[in-house]
Automatic annotation (TrEMBL):
Cofactor note: Binds 1 [4Fe-4S] cluster.
GO MF term list: 4 iron, 4 sulfur cluster binding; class I DNA-(apurinic or apyrimidinic site) endonuclease activity; DNA binding; DNA N-glycosylase activity; metal ion binding
Cross-referenced InterPro entries: DNA_glycosylase (IPR011257), Endonuclease-III-like_CS2 (IPR004036), HhH-GPD_domain (IPR003265), HhH_base_excis_C (IPR023170), HhH_motif (IPR000445), Nth (IPR005759)
Organism annotation: Parasynechococcus marenigrum (strain WH8102)
Single Gene Ontology BP annotation: base-excision repair, AP site formation
Gene: nth
Entry keyword set: 4Fe-4S, DNA damage, DNA repair, DNA-binding, Endonuclease, Glycosidase, Hydrolase, Iron, Iron-sulfur, Lyase, Metal-binding, Nuclease
PANTHER family cross-referenced by the UniProt entry: A/G-SPECIFIC ADENINE GLYCOSYLASE/ENDONUCLEASE III (PTHR10359), ENDONUCLEASE III (PTHR10359:SF18)
Official protein name in the record: Endonuclease III
Cofactor: [4Fe-4S] cluster
Enzyme Commission designation: 4.2.99.18
Pfam families tied to this protein: HHH, HhH-GPD
Keyword field contains 4Fe-4S: yes
């Protein structure tokens, strides 16, 4: 099976499996989505969803968040990894939205990536899910599965993103990146599948004998 054929199988199976693709991070608007994605680095969406209700009650929009002391933000998110750095970034990000963007979340990759704590993946999630701009955010789940499914050589997340954008139609990107995440968490986990076990891996590579060694992002 060629790479394009594997991509078509992945697209068809995931559309059948996950016709609905809700964003797994709880949010109410582009600002709370931006903060939630920033907080999700090196921790689970579930844990982020546990701490953000109180944080967003205290700082539901940039003006209110900017008024919070860094220590107060830290108290809300202390359970998360890198909490001190994230607290600092959240407060400064809110301040910069007020200073540079009239309190609005900017709708460009360049402006988003200029904010503290916001990398390309975070910007891609916000652009795709808040503003509907085609993007293909690549996290560890997607990076791992792209290798297992033979969609990318997996040298780094930048290469994986380029490969996936080349393989799949632009109109599918925003939904597909979530579908891959959902599938990875449910069936093709880091320890639960080595590239030979889950239904997708078996269909794509029915004769695979050796496990796939995942290259780190």
């Amino acid at each position: 099976m060629r790479k394009k054929e594997r991509a078509q199988v992945v697209l068809e199976r995931l559309n059948d499996q996950y016709p609905e693709t809700p964003v797994p991070l709880d949010h109410s608007d582009s600002f709370t989505l931006l903060i939630a994605v920033l907080l999700s680095a090196q921790c689970t969406d579930k844990k982020v969803n546990e701490v953000t209700p109180a944080l967003f009650a205290a700082g539901p929009e940039p003006a209110a968040m900017a008024q919070l002391e860094e220590q107060e933000i830290l108290e809300h998110i202390r359970q998360l990894g890198l909490a001190k750095t994230k607290a600092k970034n959240v407060r400064r990000l809110a301040q910069l939205l007020l200073e540079r963007h009239d309190g609005e979340v900017p709708q460009s990759f360049e402006a988003l990536e200029a904010l503290p704590g916001v990398g390309h993946k975070t910007a891609s999630v916000v652009m795709s899910q808040a503003f509907g701009v085609p993007a293909f955010p690549v996290d560890t789940h997607i990076h791992r599965l792209a290798q297992r499914w033979g969609l990318s050589n997996g040298d780094n997340v930048q290469r994986t993103e380029r490969d996936l954008k080349d393989l799949f139609p632009r109109e599918a990107w925003n939904r597909l990146h979530l579908q891959i995440i959902f599938y990875g968490r449910e069936f093709c986990t880091a320890r639960g599948c080595d590239g030979r076990i889950c239904p997708m891996c078996r269909e794509l590579y029915p004769n695979r004998r050796k496990p796939v060694i995942t290259r780190k992002a």
